[in-house]
Amino acid sequence: MVRVANDGRGDAQTLPAPADTDLRALTALVEHQRALLEREDEVHRVLVRVVLDGGGLGEIAHAVAGFFGGAAVVTTTDGRVLASAGTLPEVGPPVALACFDRTGRLLVEDEPVGLRAPEGPADPARAFVRIVAGASELGVLGAFSPGPALTATDVHMLERAATVAALAVTKQQAVAAVEGKYRAEFLRDVLAGRAGDPADAAAHAASLGWDIDRPLVVVVAETDENDAETTRAADEVHSLQDRFVRAWTQAVRSRDTSVAVAGFSQEVVVLLPVPEDADTDAVLRPVGDLARVVRGDGGGGRRTFTAGVSRLVTSVADLPRAYDEALTAVQVGRQVDGGSGLSHFDRLGIYRLLALVPDSADLRRFVTESLGELATDDVPENADLRNTLSVLLDTNLNVAETARRLFFHYNTLRYRIAKLERMLGPFTTDPQLRLTLALALRVHRMKGI
């Protein structure tokens, strides 16, 4: 091919034809770009068809895993896996990778959006993109490839997939919001004793897929941050609470879909089934497992919370009482442990009575009057002496057992007892004084007063 150009003076000049190699390279590049665009369009068509046919996040993850010949996950913004598909050689499901924590949460705080190169022989190439609808971030879509390293083109294709995933997430959240509101209102009526006859309430719960007519305990999980006094924007508070409710709902339903679970203003309530002969430890184990899954390793913007567990009930009519017990366990547990704990109503002991005192100033005054200078930590030795006194009272003044627990020599403990009696009075011979000191030590432990 010959091109003709003007030299600016009106004279036509003949330019040399491009080399055949350059033409072939250009043709190959155009063909490559055309193939990429066709592949992206095909991916988009397949995923849109999945959504139009009623498919959800599971089907989308399966399609994405097929496109990359590996695995795919869809997670919430804080990394909780909503859907997963595909397996990886020598690894299995993607949640077994180091980029997920022990509870199966994607470490979104450590996994940046975009490409991530393999960090070892068994570590696959991966890419993450945000799932966004308008100004709202809905989650994360990730792809894992055991083959060649992923490219910027693969990320662009993944972003096209995330656009379709946003449709599925939006639909899922809309349906869940309506269902969740209705379920929460019904459960609130049950816990307030306003749901009518117990048999009718159990039947209505069954129509919602819940089985509440069996031995169970009421679990209340309440966020430690007081939303009524927060400086956060209202939309942010609402978003955080929705995330908290979804985390509990997903953790519960992954184990048993018949368990009643719903979110209220600042808490989540679970009616957890337990064996009728279960002791307190047997009850706390499954609750603790659920709490660990919801907490994850604390990353991804998760909120801290305190959980309380009621006594076992065998009748729907007893659920209001059990709910009050769980709320008490949350309140007292937060006062004793300072938040982020798990308390059972039967293990509150004397703290149940102490929590009923309406004015915490009275409790502080009682501690000061009973423990004197030991009530403060102005002297470094005071905390150690309080611990010695606590163990002495717990062992009913058994000096040998106290010395063994504290790893003290017998004579050292005798010296400390004499010093404590000079500071507090003859508690070794006065049972009323011992009771006062035991109560004062427990009040001193209550961080919430």
TrEMBL record:
Signal peptide: none annotated. Residues 385-443 form the PucR C-terminal helix-turn-helix domain. InterPro entries: CdaR-like_regulators, CdaR_GGDEF, PucR_C-HTH_dom, PucR_C-HTH_sf. Residues 193-332 form the CdaR GGDEF-like domain. PANTHER family: CARBOHYDRATE DIACID REGULATOR (PTHR33744), DNA-BINDING TRANSCRIPTIONAL ACTIVATOR ADER (PTHR33744:SF1). Belongs to the CdaR family. This is Purine catabolism regulator. It comes from Phycicoccus duodecadis.
